[in-house]
Design a protein that fits this description.
Number of domains: 1
Oligomer: single chain
Distance between the termini: 27 Å
Strand content: 15-25%
Helix content: 25-40%
CATH architecture: 3-Layer(aba) Sandwich
Shape: globular
Structural class: alpha/beta
Number of strands: 5
Length: 104
């Protein structure tokens, strides 16, 4: 797992053909807006989160965020333990995001 600043996260994401954006916030948080192109999988689902990860390709590079960066850091650690080699945590999370946002 790597913690990346907003600038590094966005720059690396933009240049990565194997990038997948993963939002691990709750549905209520997601309703407030998302980073465009994000897949939603709530880390608070517990086993449901783990089951959901089974649908993701481990050869991809995952750019993970939550509200503040804590849960996404935990999600990255979980993903690494399950064999995902590249999971990048957005430091400061969605609260500090200054890029584009969208509605789901």
């Amino acid at each position: 797992m790597s913690d990346l600043s907003q600038e590094a996260w966005a720059s690396q994401l933009a240049q990565d053909p194997k990038a997948v954006i993963l939002d691990v916030r709750t549905s209520d948080e997601v309703a407030e807006g998302v980073i465009p192109g994000a897949h939603h999988l709530d880390i608070f689902l517990g086993q449901g989160f783990l089951d959901g990860l089974e649908d993701f390709d481990k050869s991809k590079n995952y750019y993970v965020y939550c509200r503040s960066g804590n849960r996404s850091g935990q999600a990255c650690a979980i993903m690494n333990s399950l064999g995902f080699e590249n999971a990048f945590n957005l430091e400061g999370g969605f609260m500090s995001w200054e890029g584009d946002t969208a509605s789901l």
